[in-house]
Recover the amino acids of this structure.
């Protein structure tokens, strides 16, 4: 394991400190309880607040999405480990203006349980909380018999669009509703060419030889459902798109947003090769790509690989996606 | 360990858990890396290190010790195992409320409370390849031993043996809860890390 | 070699096509001669145009910096190989509004010679060209006896600030002058934990074992000057900062811009750990970090590593850095 | 090869260069990966593949062939070697302007023109560990052979032998130009890829 770190125990603390310092124009980092990254001007009077969080190692998710037009606070846990209820509660209290708080939670047992406890505690203190569960990963089949689909790259779209709804003044129920609508219309699937190493584990989460690819990986270095011999980028992209297009009710003439997301260690040039194929396939099917975004947004440390996400857009989602945003990782119109 | 678990003996047991978990961190991490995300060892070590620091305090009775374990785990572990072990110790402590010391039946009541708490909180059934597969047989074995008149130590031993067997029996099955459920058939042949840590917890006093 | 590519021969073409499609709101890709990425609204009447380029594999440099407030065109060559004069000339002609064109050229023999030829040919067609050479890499010592310092991450700062000067209406000489001023006040140094593999070479550009780090690497997968045993992130950061601070005339009370740049395969969390240490050291020396930027901007395919860049700011450079920009990789104020 | 290089023989020589370069691509890349950026083989292969495609055309004289090589290399190779080899063939072609065929002296004039062109364009001196270290001794050897009355083939052979020796002699020295110069002492012991490809170009007719 070779990393640009000091003590593995200090990775999250030092990284969040550096992040806080680098972006002190838009956010504030609180270290106790560890850690809460809050929008500089929180709580914003009258505005519904959005709080998200989860294990670290997915940067820029979630801290990179804190700021005007998106999240009010993010709660980073240890690497790949959900934070405990304490900082989630602290974040919820710090950003609530009285208009209520939406928790955006990726569907993992740990995240669900810890956010659940925090929401209970917040309610006990008189704060209204709505939870939006994100579960966009079509790699997980038979969800009746599993912990359910995982929340992966689509999370940033839920955060962006629900964040814009809150910013324009929607009430708690409406912000939660649009968040759930985005999730319901979003599907993702990812693959890995090379695994990542959790600093305190010291060894890769799985091993792949020079010719192997994991299809259907999650974002925690967990192996996927299938291991195949490497193929061309186009063929691999098709393998990601196929289950998405099977699952998402979408037809010729529909508008979609395409997100090609890098897992952290993939050169941008390769992500654009994947995007090129996605655009080609969707054009063949008569589906209009009206919004697109390519980059490292929901990562898995230094994992090499990519995921493809499609969001079936309607006019309102498009307008909210386009609305101004000013965070460390996403910025436009401001 | 004595025939009954008074406050001091409860503290000793928890201290022993901390030692075992620290020793087994790498083993738990390896299990979790195989079918999960490789953090279970670190999660448990972090949690029980925090618990151990709290043990120097004053406690009125076993319930207070166990409740302190619960709240400390909830606020330091995170992940799935944090809330689940937190719930286990919380519900277990509630089941022994008011007892100055735990005899065999008291220990069995704690374990039953913990097992049912975990099951309810995580919505997992027996056979889903989770820590429930260690807690449920442990509760049954504990109750059976207590009904036979076993003392605290013997009840705990019976529970630990059943938990160990339950953990082993998670190997041949697919998972339906937790991260391992994403793996489908590929989880077969690997032991559930949470079931394993449950066996360590119950077996720590031996 | 495991990459998300089709044929290694097609990497640049397909990646640039995908890039063009993904950003068709701000730029246009011309494929013949291969390749020119031009600002959608080029030529902009009356505005001095900026053209940069060089080998591919450093994305988002340069194509990601094409757009309002920065470059008018970028010319991507094959991976790590300077483009030939033809596309440079084509780009120069495509964006010239009559106000002249600034070539921003990283100081490598190949880039210098090919841009030189293109500038001669442009002049022959009546287009005025000024060349700004970027050579910010302090890893190269004894520059009298070498090809001179390399142009590395500081290039993006030259492009941003000179681009803003052109956008506000400065004339050719003034835009070139501010570009040279930025370069003169910029110093960079990088390191690698793991090398990259050029697609058509198929093998890593150098090899490092599990405990080695290359100090002073360039951005073409070329090895550095020194190979050492791995140290903590703080110690490694100090090794990058030291030669920069030795070389840059900077003193307590001065303002600097800090750029912590990832080489492509480094998780963002690690870049922030490096940033944290840079901020700490500069604070100790009484130097004010008034602008900071952390991310993968000038990369070397999937290389793992980072570089640190300091730019000693004056009021004008700060104002131009802050000016609105709308490109694929940098965006604010628009 | 004939005793003189007429237009057809010049075309054959260039064709032979294309074949040698294609064959040696991997070798050149490996040299460049060691002390450069690993693209010299691909650069040269790309350039001479484009050159070879142009050779089916009609040419008036050797100069026209050599000028076509020059412009094709300039517009297809890129990197440092593209402009440098482009200049070599351009200045070399200018040195044989007006000759219907090249005898020994003609070949020597071409090589001298090329060598001086490369040196001027890249501002490298002998001993800087670049292709200049192959071109300069090649030009001297060619001129000496031509002065001794050698024919075209013999002059080219003498030049090739000198270029090969020059390329070998780049091994023990540090570089002062090109990417290898960034390496300082670490370039010692490695051959310069451009000097090596120059030796292949001059030796292709053998
Ligand atoms: N729904 C559930 N019910 C009971 N136990 C569960 C459930 N989900 C996960 N677990 C247990 O949690 C363990 C994993 O804990 P840990 O690795 O610490 O958390 P995480 O899965 O969040 O990384 C699993 O091995 C399993 O025993
Ligand atoms: N200034 C120079 N003068 C002469 N030859 C040079 C100079 N710089 C580089 N070269 C030659 O170019 C060769 C490298 O060519 P190539 O790898 O194709 O280009 P690049 O260095 O741009 O990747 C070197 O081996 C050297 O012989
Ligand atoms: Mg976890
Ligand atoms: Mg885990
Ligand atoms: Mg090159
Ligand atoms: Mg090269």
């Amino acid at each position: 394991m070779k990393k640009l770190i000091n003590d593995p125990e200090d990775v999250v603390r030092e990284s969040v400190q550096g992040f806080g310092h680098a972006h002190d124009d838009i956010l504030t980092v609180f270290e106790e309880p560890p850690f809460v990254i809050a929008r500089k001007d929180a709580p914003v009077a009258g505005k519904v607040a959005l709080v998200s969080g989860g294990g670290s190692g997915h940067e820029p998710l979630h801290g990179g999405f804190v700021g005007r037009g998106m999240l009010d606070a993010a709660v980073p846990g240890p690497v790949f480990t959900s934070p405990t209820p304490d900082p989630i509660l602290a974040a919820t209290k710090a950003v609530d203006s009285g208009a209520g708080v939406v928790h955006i939670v990726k569907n993992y047992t740990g995240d669900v349980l810890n956010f659940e406890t925090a929401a209970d505690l917040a309610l006990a203190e008189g704060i209204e909380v709505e939870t939006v569960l994100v579960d966009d990963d079509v790699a997980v089949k038979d969800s009746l018999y599993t912990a359910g689909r995982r929340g992966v790259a689509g999370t940033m779209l839920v955060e962006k669009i629900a964040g814009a709804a809150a910013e324009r003044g929607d009430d708690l129920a409406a912000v939660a509703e649009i968040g759930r609508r985005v999730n319901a219309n979003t599907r993702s699937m990812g693959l890995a060419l090379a695994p990542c190493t959790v600093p305190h584990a010291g060894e890769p989460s799985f091993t792949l030889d020079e010719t192997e690819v994991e299809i259907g990986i999650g974002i925690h270095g967990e192996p996927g459902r299938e291991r195949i011999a490497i193929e061309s980028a186009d063929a691999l992209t098709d393998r990601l798109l196929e289950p998405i297009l099977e699952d998402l009710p979408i037809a010729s003439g529909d508008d979609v947003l395409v997100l090609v997301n890098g897992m952290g260690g993939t050169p941008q040039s390769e992500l654009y090769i994947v995007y090129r194929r996605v655009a080609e396939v969707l054009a063949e099917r008569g589906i209009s790509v009206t919004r697109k975004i390519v980059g490292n947004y929901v990562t898995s440390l230094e994992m090499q690989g990519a995921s493809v996400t499609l969001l079936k857009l309607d006019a309102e989602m498009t307008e909210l996606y386009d609305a101004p945003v000013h965070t460390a990782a996403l910025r436009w119109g401001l | 360990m004595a025939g009954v678990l008074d406050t001091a003996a409860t503290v000793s047991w928890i201290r022993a858990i901390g030692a075992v978990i620290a020793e087994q961190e790498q083993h738990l991490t390896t299990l979790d890396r195989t079918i999960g995300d490789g953090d279970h060892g670190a999660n448990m070590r972090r949690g029980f290190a925090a618990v151990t620091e709290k043990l120097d305090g004053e406690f009125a009775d076993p319930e207070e010790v166990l409740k302190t374990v619960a709240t400390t785990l909830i606020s330091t572990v995170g992940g799935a195992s944090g809330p689940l072990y937190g719930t286990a110790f919380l519900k277990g402590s509630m089941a022994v409320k008011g007892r100055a010391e735990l005899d065999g039946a008291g220990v069995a009541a704690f374990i039953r409370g913990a097992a049912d708490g975990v099951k309810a909180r995580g919505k997992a059934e027996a056979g889903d390849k989770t820590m429930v597969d260690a807690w449920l047989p442990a509760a049954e074995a504990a109750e059976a031993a207590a009904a036979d008149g076993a003392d605290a130590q013997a009840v705990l031993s019976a529970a630990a043996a059943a938990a160990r067997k339950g953990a082993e029996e998670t190997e041949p099955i697919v998972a339906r809860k937790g991260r391992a459920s994403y793996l489908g058939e590929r989880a077969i042949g690997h032991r559930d890390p949470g079931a394993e840590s449950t066996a360590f917890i119950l077996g720590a006093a031996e």
Observations:
- Residues 7-203 of chain D form a domain with the Serine Threonine Protein Phosphatase 5, Tetratricopeptide repeat fold (CATH 1.25.40.340).
- The CA atoms of residues 74 and 86 of chain D lie 5 Å apart.
- Residues D 32, 36-37, 39-40, 79 surround magnesium ion (ligand 6) (CB under 6 Å).
